[in-house]
Structures are given as C-alpha cells and as structure tokens.
Amino acid sequence: MKLISAIIKPFKLDDVREAIAGLGIEGMTVTEVKGFGRQKGHTELYRGAEYQVDFLPKVKLDIATKSENVELLIESIVAAARTGKIGDGKIFVTDLDQVLRIRTGELDNEAL
Fold first, then answer.
1. Which InterPro entries match (predicted)?
2. Number of domains in the chain
3. Cα angle at 97 between 94 and 98, to 5 degrees?
4. Which pLDDT score, from 0 to 100, does residue 45 have?
5. How far is residue 26's CA from residue 89's CA, in Å, rounded to a whole number?
6. Distances (CA, A) of 34 to 4, 17, 27, 41, 62
7. How does pLDDT run across 13-44, given as a tens digit for each residue?
8. What is residue 53's predicted lDDT score, i.e. its pLDDT?
9. What is the pLDDT of residues 81-108, one digit of tens each?
10. Looking at the predicted structure, is the pLDDT value of residue 62 above 70?
11. Non-local CB neighbours of 1 within 8 Å, separated by 6+ positions
C-alpha cells in the first residue's frame, strides 16, 4: 500500500478529482496549504502599497491506494494537474505499513 501526496494549484482540483474518480479510486483527503518552491512568491499591489507574498496558495491531496495502482494514479494526476508553467506542484509517494478502517475494523487493502 502507498500514500500519494500531491501538491497542486487550487484551480486544478476539480480536474484531478474527476481523473481520479475515473480510475475507480473512491477517496482522498484535500487540505488547503500554502508554500513555495521555485516560484518564490510574488509582489502584489493593495490600496497603492506593494507587499511581498512569500507563500502561495496550493491544495494538498492525500490518497491511499494499493501498490499496483500507483503508476496509473500518478499519470492521471500529472495529466490533470499540468499547466506547463512553474508551480504546477509535486507528487510524493510513501509506503503505508498499516491501514485500519475505524468503523468496521478492516485492515490494509480491505480498508482502502
């Protein structure tokens, strides 16, 4: 089992959700986050005053999946989230040692 964490641009969330649903993946957790990478923020003008925005709004998706689904899931996220411009995001893949569904007590793949 793997945990896929994807950081994407907020306006791409619906596209990614539809792509994931098309794979039959039933659940994900979405968190609004802020951060920066190579974009390094930008300058904005508000009421005539310039100020630096260091952290840009992003969306973090956490998706637990079976190991055999990882490559297809990553390809789907990349295809749906890519704009071709800086700041498209990153995907992290980590191992899951155990998953437990609280309601039923199911373990691992059955809990996904």
1. N-reg_PII (IPR002187), N-reg_PII-like_a/b (IPR011322), N-reg_PII/ATP_PRibTrfase_C (IPR015867), N-reg_PII_CS (IPR017918), N-reg_PII_urydylation_site (IPR002332)
2. 1
3. 120
4. 65
5. 22
6. 18, 20, 23, 10, 15
7. 999 999 999 898 888 999 999 887 776 655 66
8. 67
9. 999 988 899 999 999 999 999 999 999 8
10. yes
11. 64, 65, 66, 67, 95, 96, 99, 108, 109, 112
| pLDDT at residue 43, rounded to an integer | 65
The token duo for 76 is 């789907």
Tell me the residue length of the chain: 112
Burial of 110 (0-12, 13-18, 19+ CB in 10 A): exposed
Q: Rounded distance, CA 34 to CA 29, Å?
A: 16
pLDDT of res. 24: 87
Looking up residue 84, the CATH number of its domain turns out to be 3.30.70.120
- Give the residue numbers spanning the domain of 73: 2-111
